[in-house]
Automatic annotation (TrEMBL):
The keyword Cell inner membrane does not apply. Residues 2-149 form the N-acetyltransferase domain. Pfam families: Acetyltransf_1. Coiled coil: none annotated. InterPro entries: Acyl_CoA_acyltransferase, GNAT_dom. SUPFAM superfamilies: Acyl-CoA N-acyltransferases (Nat). This is Acetyltransferase (GNAT) domain-containing protein. GO terms for molecular function: acyltransferase activity, transferring groups other than amino-acyl groups. The keyword Mitochondrion does not apply. Keywords: Transferase.
């Protein structure tokens, strides 16, 4: 048994096949690596950790080091995102994933990471590995019972994504107390993920004043997981536009648990249903009060999750 990053084209092909079989069993018009272009792309093999057994890759997980930033743009912690966790069906129940996670934790400590973060419905399994609930997020559900107000909205075709200025979107994105750093180049690369739809609102001078992102590959269909708008009225009108464009009977908006109370009250008044729950799972590697506070109040946008 050995744990290593994929080094050859054949290893990468075996990894992709494992992930496709384990995480995307139904046929899709795109490959799973296109859903995670940074950590599963050709230049991201250092983020892939494969457990080899009997000359096969039997388990895999990504470990992606990221900087956790405060609202002033100052780094407060180095964290590792874990994702694309999969075990070959023939090798499940033999403790391979536990061994892989022990290796990831050792690598994270050597890399001076202060916490590990992941997203999964298998909370009981990860609790046994030392993970606990991370922060809070709100799910606001909207239906089509209300009419849309005025606004100059446009869905950006995939062949025009390269014309979008990611710096502008980062500047108008809703402020959070703590979130992950994302460079403009990373943002632009993520915007090419399949089944992702970007909606922009333009002001009177044709400048971008609001945006939202719906969908992300296989996940988050009918979910707005990133957004920025000058007011809740602008945001809700944009939500209505997206609903009407895709004929979604319902749509979910994700918002930070630390969103200003005044804005949350406005969202609650316009939504048909609002639910609060944990954003993800976290394991502290270097516990401290400052890191615990930052993680408790952080919000990770959907594009950054893996």
């Amino acid at each position: 048994m050995a744990i290593a990053c994929p080094q050859t084209e054949s290893h990468i092909a075996l990894r992709n096949q494992l992930l496709q079989n384990a995480l995307r069993p139904e046929p899709l018009p795109f490959k799973i690596q296109s859903e995670y272009p940074i950590v599963l792309g050709e230049k991201g093999t250092e983020f892939s950790h494969c457990l080899f057994h009997d000359d096969r890759i039997v388990a895999h997980a990504n470990l992606w080091p990221r900087d956790l930033m405060d609202s002033l743009g100052q780094r407060v912690a180095k964290v590792g995102l874990i994702g694309n966790v999969a075990t070959d069906e023939s090798y499940r129940g033999q403790g391979f994933m536990k061994q892989l996670f022990q290796s990831l934790e050792s690598k994270a400590i050597l890399a001076d990471l202060e916490a590990l973060i992941l997203w999964s419905d298998l909370s009981l399994f990860y609790q046994k590995l030392g993970f606990q609930s991370l922060s809070q997020e709100w799910h606001h559900q909207f239906d089509l019972r209300h009419r849309r107000g005025a606004g100059n909205f446009r869905l950006i075709p995939s062949d025009e994504i390269h014309l979008v200025d990611p710096t502008t979107l980062l500047a108008i994105r809703t402020s959070t107390r703590y979130t992950l750093h994302r460079s403009p180049n990373e943002f632009l690369e993520m915007l090419h993920i399949p089944n992702l739809d970007l909606c922009l609102e333009y002001g009177i001078h044709n400048e971008v004043i609001a945006y939202c992102i719906t969908g992300k590959g296989y996940d988050m269909i009918g979910v707005i997981h990133e957004w920025g708008a000058p007011s809740i009225d602008h945001l809700v009108n944009m939500i209505r536009f997206v609903q009407e464009s895709f004929k979604f009977p319902e749509i979910i908006l994700l918002s930070p648990g630390t969103l200003a109370k005044s804005r949350r009250k406005q969202l609650d008044a316009r939504a048909t249903k609002t639910v609060k729950g944990p954003m993800g799972l976290v394991k502290l590697l270097k516990p401290s009060k400052s890191i615990e506070l930052a993680l408790d109040q952080c919000f990770i946008w959907g594009l950054d999750s893996i």
